[in-house]
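Sequence in, structure out. Go.
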Amino acid sequence: MKRIYHKNTLLYYDGIQVFDAQDDIGGNYIGVLVDTAESSQDHYLVVGIAPAELQRLRLAEIDLRAAIMGRPGTEWFLTSPAAGAEGSLELEGRAGDIPEEYLPGEGLLLGARSAGSTCSAFNEARSRNTVALELSIESLVPSEQHRVPLGVLTGVLTNFGSLLKHAYDRARQGASGPGASAGRCDWRRIFDVAVPALPGSVKVLLLAPESPGLFGQTGVAEALDIVDKLAATASDPDNAIRRVKEYQGHTAGAFLRLVQFAAESELSLAYTWASPDRADVSSASISRPQAAALAEVLASSEKLGTEVKTLTGILRKVDADKGEWRLKSHTDGQEYSGKIGAGVSLSKVVIDSEYTFVCEETTEFALTSGKETQKLTLTSLRENR
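Output:
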């Protein structure tokens, strides 16, 4: 009798629904919970699957029914594990076609998943008394090792960090109480450790710094609430522009860059996060097809990543030939510079006088370093007398 060994739980809902396994010589299998009239015990339909097809299944490139029907050969099995689907499983070979009632419906996509993420994030949040987020990255390229290319890992971390940073800034706008005026965090301290996940993937554990006052814990959770709302658009691309525009500006622009990178790199992303002061665990996933669809839809929206920035201060310099200006802000004492927008004239301005500049601010993002540079374009102005 053939024997296989549970490797990963691919879908869990009140018990293991779908899993993948291997036999003694490295052959790959998937098991799907089915209803049978043979006994009250759980039964799983098991079929062989090629490594590349298993990876496509996990990344939602194919649905579960297609993976079963496209199995190598015609062989299929049933197993009824007495001690649950985890561990060693004995297979009973069956002949003929797979009964229709054993097959899942069309369109059931698994997407990027990581077994145990909910528990891991929850336990880390409780044990460290801080917000914990577990980010899983899966590549379309099949691999039996826990790895992704360095450029992919760097790209995901810098893009996700950029999104989280701008979501944090958006969450703290207008906030009051402890942490409301806290400065921006050094985001390099968030990325704490990378650990193995499913074969061909990695998990990254993100922990908010424990030092009080450095980064308001409430702000981290509020930022992740925003990320949750943005990630939810993956399952509703028709309304994605409207929903993402609620965070128009740097936050929406960072989300667009993240899904564009995932689509171009053929990745699926999933994350789970927990906070010690919340009872619920939050999770979301974006499959590669969803990332591609989102990237296309969001890129069609003009100025999605543009914010309006108003500056009031002393005008220090104007260079009409280069179309540039520089103004010292009364708010923070910093000097800001930018370009003169179309239809705007600075021919009659007076240097060292006070003005209010209304600008469009966009972000230039360096993927390798994660460095962001804000660019200002003047759209209107008034002199303050």
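Check: The longest helix spans residues 150-172. Residues 112-118, 176-183, 210-216 have pLDDT under 50 and may be disordered.
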